[in-house]
Design goal:
Blueprint lengths: L2 H27 L15 H7 L6 H14 L6 H25 L21 H6 L1 H5 L6 E5 L5 H13 L3 E5 L2 H7 L10 E5 L5 H16 L6 H11 L2 E5 L5 H12 L4 E3 L13 E3 L6 H8 L29 E6 L5 E7 L10 E4 L10 E3 L1 E8 L7 H14 L4 E4 L6 E5 H5 L4 H15 L6 E7 L2 H24 L7 E5 L11 E3 L12 H10 L7 E3 L3 E3 L4 E2 H10 L25 E6 L4 E6 L12 H5 L11 E4 L19 E3 L2 H19 L18 H11 L11
Parallel strand pairs: 1-2, 1-4, 2-3, 4-5, 5-6, 7-10, 8-11, 9-14, 21-23
Antiparallel strand pairs: 7-13, 11-14, 12-13, 15-16, 15-17, 18-19, 20-21, 20-22
This protein binds iron/sulfur cluster and zinc ion (ZN).
Length: 717
């Protein structure tokens, strides 16, 4: 059989399974029964992407089979293989949708899919979470590993090999059992996702891919050409399929190739394929990583770091449980801190790592210890303003170590060292090695020399903590005095353009980037570290309207960096030319018409807001670098800002937020509401999910009772 026959046969097989699944499910639950994967605003995303249909019930699912079948053309041209491949993936999505229609948790009873053997569907929030790591190339690509590797050892070597290179790993079929047998930690947070027991689960992966194109690329439904162009140009994915490869897998592989994702396999079936590099037959599984990266054109940034455990951003989400812990530095119980300080280069011995106090092997198992990490840097171009920027990066640097967990910053850190890392030989000096390498690598433009000292001696750490607190306070004081008025320039950030080609963030002291990761200070440092990089200086000399936040200079910058897609941006308005969103925003706010206010919801919150929409649904109203008045993605710390929708009346428009979000911004929000409007304890007037969920009338009743100021403001629309 040639490749055409294999693809067509596999495609027919999948389609037949889909037909059967629909028929049986219809018999069970009827044609009005709802069909949804949950926590997505994109319906059955593959079907929406390639047919434009928005399937919500069984009758519509049955009807969707017709256009799927129609796509399975058989003229024996290359395009037929591609179309049939995509149709196969849609047929797989139909089968998965039937499973979810019968049981919303088809892969186990745990609400958190990471606790089940198979993850299945991925939420919109999970797709959005990938935004920043993708643009920073912390995730340089995705691999889909299908079926059983020749040996368990080879399975683990591939999974870990990809993971330690930052490649996001999806698993389908038998390799999941191989990984489990070998005790590989899996789940979305560690970027190894066991999707499903067989090739049918591939639809969940393609669903994630097409949603990334909707969310970040503003690709429209039923736009086959632009969808596949986007995935080919911007999503660096590829497939590794182990022999024996089923015909259905080959058919799905054709779909993957249509989207620009090469397939590497050790199946030597005679397949007369003509697209070079798209189908690679390589029987030496041990060489697949390099071979795959080359086929997809992925180049990795390598830094050699002298530590006995793997270093990869994939481990940032790793959790070390108490029972697996060798010891812990817990800033809430013991003196702990991290500090970056500038020093005269002549006083620094480059790459000197010092430990003052006991090492990890000298403490008892499970002990809580004191720990101070002092990083001293020097260089002609180093400025004290860069210290907090580097210091905050310690969190993600340390978290990249396999078997080490890090949370918090300053003197509120918690670091756990796992028994596994300890047994692999990890000791205190390795924190120093890691920080040295990362800082020298990332900040080479300003850091000529760097030395690290780790203290575990309790008295010494206590002294250092008192000293460090004075430094932290002085910094906070400086930052709190910064306002949009007090600085001469703003900055652009266009990092997200690799996915949202026309999106530009304008970063100001009172409005950080919508991802939450780029403050004005960060942007300033980024600009100085890399003058041709994503953060460019935007002067603010030609004011048009300071109330609404319009400057001619800002407009010019936005026009230039959006390549003409945008004309004008009002920094302080959500109604009039609001700032665009890419897709990776921490929070989204949207108008609530009954109260004249806005609701704000963060990505972590899954419940429904009083406007009847969840985070995912609200988030889908904006994105892709397009201006959408009434909806705006923004960073968490923008909420209590005096500039938050100042043009429309400011903070007093906020009527609803999830409780946890409200608490996290309460202090500053209350202080600013008092200063601006004379309101005491403003957060008590803001409703949350414990007071009202989907009901706007109940919301207005609550706001009326509290005398919320939004009710007395002019309508926004
Ligand atoms: Fe993306 Fe804006 Fe964050 Fe920059 S500041 S990374 S452009 S969201
Ligand atoms: Zn973004």
């Amino acid at each position: 059989m040639g490749l055409f026959d294999v693809v067509f046969h596999g495609s027919d097989e999948m389609y037949a399974l889909a037909e059967t699944a629909v028929k049986e499910t219809l018999e069970k639950i009827g044609e009005d029964a709802p069909v949804a994967f949950g926590s997505t605003a994109y319906y059955l995303a593959c079907i929406k992407a390639y047919t434009g249909l928005e399937v919500t019930n069984m009758a519509q699912l049955r009807d969707a089979l017709t256009p799927i079948r129609a796509m399975m053309t058989r003229n024996r041209r290359t395009a037929d293989i591609f179309h049939s491949g995509i149709a196969t993936v849609m047929a797989a999505e139909v089968i998965e949708a039937c499973k979810y229609a019968v049981n919303p948790l088809p892969y186990g009873e745990n609400e958190n899919p990471n606790d089940n053997k198979y993850h299945g569907h991925m939420t919109d929030a999970e797709v959005r979470e990938l935004g920043v790591p993708l643009v920073t190339r912390d995730i340089p690509g995705f691999v889909v590993l299908i079926d059983e590797a020749p040996t368990d050892e080879q399975a683990v070597a591939l999974i870990k090999g990809y993971q330690s290179r930052g490649i996001f790993v999806f698993l389908l079929g038998g390799i999941i059992d191989q990984a489990m047998r070998k005790g590989v930690k899996m789940g979305f947070p560690v970027r190894v996702v066991p999707v499903g027991p067989d090739i049918i689960g591939v639809s969940h992966i393609i669903s994630l891919v097409v949603r990334a194109a909707f969310i970040f690329g503003n690709i429209q439904p039923n736009d086959y050409v632009n969808m596949n162009r986007y995935t080919m140009d911007r999503i660096f994915a590829f497939v590794n399929a182990f022999s024996p490869v089923s015909d259905m897998t080959v058919a799905c592989g054709a779909g993957a190739i249509a989207e620009g994702f090469p397939v590497i396999t050790n199946e030597v079936k005679d397949m007369d394929w003509r697209v070079p590099k798209s189908l690679v037959i390589n029987t030496d599984v041990d060489t697949w990583i390099d071979c795959s990266l080359e086929a997809r054109g992925i180049k990795l940034k390598v830094t050699n770091i002298d530590v006995p455990v793997a270093v990869s951003s994939a481990f940032e989400g790793e959790i070390i449980r108490k029972g697996d812990m060798q010891l812990e530095a817990d800033g809430s119980r013991k003196d702990c801190l991290e500090l970056v300080r500038t020093k005269d280069v002549r006083e620094i011995e480059d790459h000197k790592i010092t430990l003052v106090g006991k090492d990890i092997d000298e403490f008892g198992v499970g002990e809580k210890i004191c720990m101070a990490t002092i990083v001293e840097v020097g260089g002609a171009k180093m400025q004290p303003d860069f210290e907090p920027v580097m210091e905050r990066k310690i969190h993600s640097f340390v978290n990249c170590l396999e078997g080490i967990m890090h949370t918090g910053q300053r003197d509120l850190i918690r670091i756990r060292v796992s028994k596994a890392a300890f047994e692999a030989g990890f000791r205190m000096k390795h924190f120093g090695e890691l920080l040295y390498a990362k800082i020298k690598n990332e900040y080479e433009a300003v850091v000529d020399k760097c030395q690290v000292t780790i203290y575990t001696e309790p008295e010494k750490v206590h002294e250092l903590r008192i000293e460090a607190n004075k430094i932290y306070d002085a910094r906070d004081d400086r930052v709190s005095k910064l306002s949009d008025e007090s600085v001469d320039v703003f900055y652009t950030c266009i990092l997200c353009q690799s996915f949202s080609p026309s999106h530009v963030c304008i970063v100001t002291p009172e409005r950080l980037g919508l991802c939450g990761a780029v403050s004005w200070m960060d942007a300033k440092a980024t600009n100085q570290l890399d003058p041709n990089g994503p953060c460019q200086i935007v002067p603010k000399e030609r004011v048009v309207d300071e109330e609404i936040g319009i400057w001619e200079d800002v407009n010019e910058a936005v026009q230039t960096y959006s390549h003409g897609a945008l004309e004008q941006v009002s920094l302080y308005s959500i109604m009039q030319d609001p700032m665009t969103s890419c897709g990776c925003f921490e929070c989204i706010c949207g108008i609530e018409p009954f109260s004249n206010g806005v609701v704000i919801v963060n990505r972590e919150h899954t419940g429904v807001t009083p406007v009847g929409m969840t985070f995912s649904e609200l988030a889908s109203m904006t994105g892709g670098g397009v201006q959408t008045p009434g909806f705006m993605g923004h960073g968490r710390h923008f909420i209590p800002s005096k500039k938050f929708m100042k043009a429309e009346g400011g903070l007093q428009r906020i009527v609803w937020m999830p409780k946890a979000l409200k608490e996290s911004v309460a202090e500053k929000l209350n202080a600013n509401a008092k200063e601006l409007y004379g309101i005491e304890n403003f957060t008590d007037m803001i409703a949350d999910e414990t007071i009202v969920e989907g009901d706007p009338e109940a919301l207005v009743a609550f706001l009326t009772e509290k005398g919320h100021p939004a009710l007395g403001l002019e309508p926004m629309m």
